[in-house]
UniProtKB/TrEMBL annotation:
Species whose genome carries this gene: Tunturiibacter gelidiferens
Annotated keywords: Cobalamin biosynthesis, Methyltransferase, S-adenosyl-L-methionine, Transferase
A GO term, aspect molecular function: precorrin-2 C20-methyltransferase activity
EC number(s) on file: 2.1.1.130
Pathway: Cofactor biosynthesis; adenosylcobalamin biosynthesis
Transmembrane segments: none
Superkingdom of the organism of origin: Bacteria
Protein name (database record): Precorrin-2 C(20)-methyltransferase
InterPro entries found in the cross-reference section: 4pyrrol_Mease, 4pyrrol_Methylase_sf, 4pyrrole_Mease_sub1, 4pyrrole_Mease_sub2, Cbl_synth_CobJ/CibH_dom, CobI/CbiL, CobI/CbiL/CobIJ_dom, Precorrin_MeTrfase
PANTHER family named in the record: COBALT-FACTOR III C(17)-METHYLTRANSFERASE-RELATED
Length: 498
């Protein structure tokens, strides 16, 4: 009979933290395999060295590379993949001969553990069992005497190998975090913690539960000598637990969350949304922002922009960190202007607030990208809503745009109260543009009910539009492009009259 493969979690380092089952499997295994570097001893073997016997076959898994560079033609990924392929075949030979193999793994085998790569290669060929171990994150929390999460809080595990911007985008003051694999990434991680406003809560520990364990204040860490077996914990902190002396008072940020898709929210927008104590916005837009414990939300109708802005400013004036949530880009027919206009007309105290505008992908950018590059040359953006400006002004601007031969992005084309203006806009544009001028109706771009219709000025149908639709109208040079996959794209050349 073939032998059985075991992935054995040893816990964080203290031999007394090995489970009884893990000890039994190690003692009974015919072959004990463990990872080790070319130079130096194996941490995994050291943890269980007193349990190994002379009768057991030891199989060191010597990594060909750790932090060094390589001249392998496939780079790091290729040389490591080859290493696991070779080790899997060596282990398979023992299993074929009927010997049980225990692969030792610090922490838990499936939590950033090297065993998972052998599991991928062998579990479908041999009987395999994984013995869980105490992860280093939980050992670190115990040694630091700090609870990680409370009630319905979230715990996020982040590898320090992420970019600084990616770390900042994921960190926020009200969730708990563990950042692993520090080593040479320490300085980058420290900068990210500072940028995310959680540096003062972060706790550092290296070699948790091992004989050389150290708990050091972050400011005292020697960044040149941070070991791989080190991590940073950022415990859960509720809004009422935040040190008010370090909080940024009177802050209001108008943030654009893009037109629909969650993937279009920028890292900067994600960060400020996570840091806010209060969110204010049109309810439909607030629904697109993930819920966070302790955050207050104030949703309202879409027609009360001024009231919404004034409410947000009042909250900020009381010392709250407020985010005004806007669809698309907040500076394009959206809440950035409403907030600044309220500041201009409001009490003097509002002028001393920390006011920031965080851009977002606009609806016209998203719609244009869906069908090519219709705004690739000079273009104009116009709202057909006459709620805040007279229709006569809109008519005058339509004539000016059409006569100047701009490509045109039309926002707010129609509503339940405005049924006829879009047809009049079509008539005006038709007086200046050829019937075959490309027209795009882009509805709910980036959302599940997205609908894109490509037509032309002659077949322009106002019934295709509603308040969730953005319309793109080409200039005299805008072209349709038929691709070989039967897909149609539209673009406006960058040259004009040359």
């Amino acid at each position: 009979m073939p032998g059985q493969l075991f992935g054995v979690g040893l816990g964080p380092g203290d031999p007394e933290l090995i489970t009884l089952k893990a000890l039994r499997i190690i003692r009974q295994a015919h072959v004990v395999a463990y990872p080790t570097a070319k130079h130096g001893q194996s941490n995994a073997r050291c943890i269980v060295s007193s349990e190994l016997t002379l009768e057991q076959i030891e199989l060191p898994m010597i990594y060909p590379i750790t932090t060094q560079t390589t001249d392998h033609p496939g780079g790091y990924e290729a040389i490591i993949a080859q290493f696991y392929d070779d080790m899997a075949e060596q282990i398979a030979a023992h299993l074929h001969d009927g010997r049980d193999v225990a692969v030792l793994c610090e922490g838990d085998p499936f939590f950033y553990g090297s065993f998972m790569y052998l599991h991928d290669r062998l579990a479908h060929r041999f009987s395999t069992e994984v013995i869980p171990g105490i992860p280093s994150v939980m050992a670190a929390a115990a040694r630091l005497s700090t609870p990680l999460v409370r009630r319905d809080s979230e715990l996020t595990i982040l590898p320090a190998t992420l970019s600084e911007d990616a770390l900042v985008a994921r960190l926020n003051p009200w969730s708990a975090f563990a950042i692993m694999k520090l080593g040479r990434n320490f300085t980058k991680v420290k900068n990210a913690l500072s940028r995310a406003g959680v540096l003062s809560k972060a706790l550092y520990i290296e070699r948790a539960t091992m004989s050389r364990e150290q708990i050091v204040h972050l400011s005292d860490v020697d960044s040149a000598n941070v070991p791989y077996f080190s991590l940073i914990l950022v415990p859960d902190s509720r809004p009422d637990q935040i040190d008010k002396s370090t909080a940024r008072p009177g802050q209001i940020t108008v943030v654009g969350v893009g037109p629909g898709s969650a993937e279009w929210i920028t890292p900067e927008a994600q960060q400020v949304l996570a840091e806010a104590t209060d969110l204010v916005g049109y309810q439909r837009y607030l629904d697109r922002v993930p819920l966070r414990s302790g955050q207050r939300r104030f949703g309202s109708d879409n027609k009360v922009e001024a009231e919404r802005a004034q409410h947000a400013l009042s909250l900020a004036a009381s010392g709250r960190r407020v985010c005004v949530v806007s669809s698309g880009d907040p500076g394009i027919f959206a809440m950035a202007t409403a907030v600044l206009e309220s500041v201009d007309q409001g009490p003097e105290a509002w002028r001393s607030l920390d006011i920031r505008i965080v851009p977002g992908i606009s609806a016209m950018q998203a719609a244009a990208a869906r069908i090519g590059a219709p705004l690739g040359h000079d273009f104009c953006v116009l709202s057909l809503s006459d709620r805040l400006k007279p229709w006569e002004v809109i008519v005058k601007r339509l004539h000016a745009v059409a006569s100047a031969d701009f490509a045109l992005a039309i926002y707010n084309p129609i509503s339940s109260e405005r049924k006829w203006q879009l047809a009049e806009a079509q008539a005006i544009l038709s007086g200046y543009r050829a019937p075959e001028t490309p027209v795009v109706f882009a509805r709910a771009v980036g959302r599940p009910d997205e609908k894109i219709v490509i037509t032309d000025l002659a077949r322009f149908d106002p019934d295709l539009a509603d308040m969730q639709t953005l319309i793109l109208v080409g200039s005299s040079t805008t072209r349709n492009l038929a691709l070989s996959n039967h897909r149609e794209m539209i673009y406006t050349p960058r040259t004009y009259g040359v």
